[in-house]
Amino acid sequence: MKVVNVYEGKEEPMHFTCSDKIRFNFAGKNTYPPGLVEQLHKHDDEDCFYYIVEGGCLVTVGEEKRELRKGDLVFIPHKVHHGFTVSKEGLRLLDIHIKVT
Length: 101
Description:
The chain is an all-beta fold.
């Protein structure tokens, strides 16, 4: 059993797979510093969710842009380009990927 407390997080990212269809990536403190840009990209075979644990970012999903802050959850469908720019507060994020069959 793996347990992750998203509010206490470690300095290093944690990655684990629950099944052959679901995987989690947890970004610990300092993983996404202010101003960092995650370039637009897509996942052909995975839907994903971003849950904002701390800080915030400007996220792009397809043609839409939105500011996200602590407590926000965004769904990103497979095959849709997405990326983000980290806000001045930095960013801690739980990134959940679900394989599409």
